[in-house]
Amino acid sequence: MNLFWLQLDLVGFFLAAAGVLAVTPLFRILARKTGFLDVPASNHKAHAKATPLLGGLAMFTVWIGLLAGGILAAFSPLIPGVREAVLPHLAGLLAVRWRVTALVLCSLAAVLLGLVDDRTALPAWAKFLGQFIIAVAAVLEGGVHVTLFCELPVFQMGVSVFWIMLLMNSINFFDNMDGLAVGAIAIGMGLFTAVAALNGQYFFALFSALNCGICCGFWFYNANPATIFMGDSGSHFLGFLAAVTAMGVTFFQPERGGTFMAVLIPLFVLALPLFDTAMVVVIRTCKGKPFWIGDHNHISHRFVRMGMSRRDAVLLVHLLSLAVGLGGLPLLWCGWRTTSILIAQALFLLTAVTWVQFRAGHVSVDRLGDASRKN
Fold first, then answer.
1. How many angstroms separate the CA atoms of 175 and 345, rounded?
2. Peptide bond into 225 cis (omega under 30)
3. Of 302, 322, 325, 326, nearest in space to 312 by CA
4. Which of 22, 141, 315, 373 stands the most exposed, by the fewest C-beta atoms within 10 Å?
5. pLDDT in tens, 245-281
6. Nearest alpha-carbon partner for 133 in 155, 165, 163, 100
7. So where are the chain's domains?
8. CB–CB of 46/177 below 8 Å?
9. Which of 46, 43, 40 is nearest to 300 (CA)?
């Protein structure tokens, strides 16, 4: 692991966190002036007063500013060491400049789609169509894709588009309690940073560290009691970043002695949002309601009905995210026996939590919105 790049990762993380801490209050004011507020219209809303919804735009503004600043810094002779570190990779960076631009534009489109939904409550089909267009553009123009060791372009295209849409919706669904979704993505981005750094993918490690800092900075304002929500603009943005980061980091490296099952690491890292999405879709389908209509059956809600405070429920979900995510990192280098045990361990842990919740009878029968969000 290169010490200089590790220091650069830390700088990127702290700059991102500090930037979001600095600008979020401004977007909180802007949200109140422009009417971008989550107004509790029923007793199914956990917050008692209208709450600003421009947290996603705040995160994106800092993110795009730091990306632009990083590009300028890479070619500036005023910052010792950066230019020298980037020069060996300059040809490769120039070769992918359009792909990077395309991904930035796709992330902007994700934020704008969420902003429109925050303002007008788009119908489900319109939101899914927008997500589909963004995902297709990211794959075709941004060059990100999932192969799963299959060379068929149609297969790669289908899986990649599905993965991006899945993460955008999973984080949107998971944003149902103060600090829950942004904390889970912060943990995930931290783990992706570690994997990329271990693999010598220095730019992706820096990218992931920056994303982690963005989330940590916003968490300060979004933790219970939240003074600003990320809204659909934030959940779409973070879901898109999580999907792209997971596709960009290399997990399977034969020379390390691991197995091809290392490609499952993103499922470990993002296990809780994905598992929660799967569970609520099953529950809603079994109740005969559309899966995109919110209810109180997210894992966090079930913990609250077991007697926990909302803060404790969020903390427990974050601890579960960290435990399952860390359990997946050894897949980078371990053999089949250890891999099988780690996969079984993660599945048994999630099954045990679900079993306790369901046996306690903590599945809601309501058919209305979440306690604090639409999904």
1. 26
2. yes
3. 302
4. 22
5. 999 888 887 777 778 899 999 999 999 999 999 999 9
6. 165
7. 3-359
8. yes
9. 46
